[in-house]
């Protein structure tokens, strides 16, 4: 006699559920392996200026994560295994070579097909420095440069490798290109194109978003151009020499206390030099930033009878930032510069 072994309905349902779970897991695994999550392109940005571009241009077609968390000084970032794995699963990586050596190295070793070095999308060489301004005894100012009697210190004044905190002419590179709205707009346009190659189905969306962002950056450039057109002085002192591109764009003179490293200690010769510069160029303010100590700025300002204020290099957004995004902080920077330089 043939006996039919009946399978209980509960077992059938359980088996079907397990099969569905397995299918879902396979689908999720495949999704992750091709750089997507819930149908969206997974984008990994190295630090805030790249994150902002990815979010604005990618919009709702991407999920964006950043390797540099808020409040972390990006230059010193060392990647943890979890962050290295984050890179491996990305569908698109956006970074700016020269800011974070450890990140640069990890990204170069990552086999992800679509990755963009923003430094290749614009010019990172610093423009020629503007001449210093000095009164001629009749209330007028005249420009002058190296070798005309204005004391910038000598090579023997500073320790080996000291760049005096400022740049004389072209030849040096500065990765802080995002502080120049024009160069940042060039990067934005390039990122729009690159995202379209990584995700062709949404290329038109990325192009449209990039065009919108470029227009906003051009408007920001116009605000800086107009706001800094007529000022009492063109010179500002800052703890972190991150503003070379911004200064070059608007004809300003950046005098950094300690150079490109925000945590570096200035030499006594450099401090002495800055006091002379402050007097000669009618400097009113020593700027410091939100992610580094303000001790050196306040010491110099106290000794020279100057005030202090924040000029944000926008390497990250924190609760101390004067705004919640790139445009808000850049407008706060413009306000601070106009006040410090005596905009008319």
User: What percentage of amino acids are in beta strands?
Assistant: 5-15%
Domain count: 2
- Assigned CATH class of the largest domain: Alpha Beta
- Structural class by secondary-structure content: alpha/beta
**DSSP E strands, number:** 11
What characteristic shape results from the CA principal axes?
Answer: globular
CATH superfamily of the largest domain: Nitrogenase molybdenum iron protein domain
Could you name the CATH topology of the largest domain?
Answer: Rossmann fold
CATH architecture of the largest domain: 3-Layer(aba) Sandwich
Q: Which ranges are low-confidence, i.e. pLDDT below 50, for 5 or more consecutive residues?
A: 1-32, 134-171
Sheet of most strands: 5 strands, mixed
Query: How large is the radius of gyration?
Result: 26 Å
Sketch the topology as an H/E string, one letter per element.
HEEHEHEHEEEHHEHEHEHEH
Mean pLDDT: 81
Helix content: 40-55%
Specify the number of helices.
Answer: 10
What is this structure, in a nutshell?
By secondary structure, the protein is α/β, with parallel strands linked by helices.
Break the fold down into its secondary structure elements and pairings:
Blueprint (H helix, E strand, L loop, with lengths): L8 H25 L2 E2 L2 E6 L2 H11 L3 E5 L14 H8 L3 E4 L5 H9 L5 E3 L14 E4 L5 E4 L36 H18 L4 H25 L7 E4 L5 H7 L2 E4 L11 H13 L4 E4 L6 H10 L2 E4 L15 H16 L3
Parallel strand pairs: 2-3, 2-4, 4-5, 8-9, 8-10, 10-11
Antiparallel strand pairs: 1-2, 6-7
Helix pairs in contact: 2-5, 5-6, 6-10
